[in-house]
Amino acid sequence: MGVTIAMKSWIRNAARTAAGFIVGMTGLLVLALTGTGAALAGTGQPSPWQINLQGAASPVMESIHSFHTFLLVIIIGVVLLVLALLILVIVRFNEKSNPVPSRTTHNTLIEVLWTVVPVLILVAIAIPSFRLLFLELDLPKADLTVKVTGHQWYWSYEYPDNGAFSFDSLMVATADLKPDQPRLLTVDNEVVVPVNKIVRIQVTAADVIHSFALPSFGVKIDALPGRLNESWFQATKEGVYYGQCSELCGRDHAFMPIAIRVVSDAEFASWVEKAKQEFASVETPERLAQGDIVPAVAGAAAR
Ligand SMILES: [Cu+2]
């Protein structure tokens, strides 16, 4: 008697858990499908419990978002069809309800269908996929160029058509962060670019392979020693956007973040003027530290 009651309550609990699971999964699916899932994802940086891609702040990332949603719809359709077929087989063709199985071996119509339909699905995926690849790889006419060099373990940036200054960008240690600065993403010198301008990035590395990745701009490109890779982005909203090195490059791979500040044209112009002075003045001690060039004055002072 007691056992029956315990079993009944166990079954009731199991049913409740299963129902909760189904409701939860359906909720997640609806969120992902309707795009409200993007609200749970930060733009420019990841957010706690993020379940979707980071928010888009460039035309390329917007296209990546719509391609992702399109694929999700197709995948859900395929999964539901396979699930329905499995349930049909389990219910209609088990030994009890179908004791004498048919000996059918071929059905031309079904065979043509299960060949042609997947081909059509793949073609339907290939067309927007190639369109997206061309958007990413076919560089439009650039308004400015930023050269990015990966080092173990920091990034350095150069503005060849804005005074050719360059600077290193190193992660800020957790203890030195200001209250609103994200941990492991904040850097001492941010890359600054103007809003709505097409920025060409030329990416290379000084030592090992790194990868320059900025999710909200839809950029991820390998930084290879001895090779110059190109990509582009057009930031559509002002703000700070973070990325990380995405190629295992050694001990401090996780500690070489990328921070790009998108500002108005006027703010960019005044930043360039400031940066030209600031980063020009650090060049001499930097080269001295490396010991490759010792200016005559410094040499005399040392003697
Ligand atoms: Cu790296």
TrEMBL record:
EC top class, as a word: translocase
Cofactor remark from the record: Binds a copper A center.
Catalytic activity as recorded in UniProt: 4 Fe(II)-[cytochrome c] + O2 + 8 H(+)(in) = 4 Fe(III)-[cytochrome c] + 2 H2O + 4 H(+)(out)
E.C. no: 7.1.1.9
The keyword rRNA processing appears for this protein: no
Alphabetical GO biological process terms: ATP synthesis coupled electron transport
Membrane topology: Multi-pass membrane protein
Subcellular location(s) per record: Cell membrane; Membrane
Keywords, comma-separated and alphabetical: Copper, Electron transport, Membrane, Metal-binding, Oxidoreductase, Respiratory chain, Translocase, Transmembrane, Transmembrane helix, Transport
InterPro entries, per database record: CcO_II, CcO_II-like_C, CcO_II_C, Copper_CuA, Cupredoxin, Cyt_c_oxidase_su2, Cyt_c_oxidase_su2_TM_dom, Cyt_c_oxidase_su2_TM_sf
GO cellular component, one term: plasma membrane
Summary of the function given for this chain in its UniProt record: Subunits I and II form the functional core of the enzyme complex. Electrons originating in cytochrome c are transferred via heme a and Cu(A) to the binuclear center formed by heme a3 and Cu(B).
Protein name in UniProt: Cytochrome c oxidase subunit 2
Name of the gene: coxB
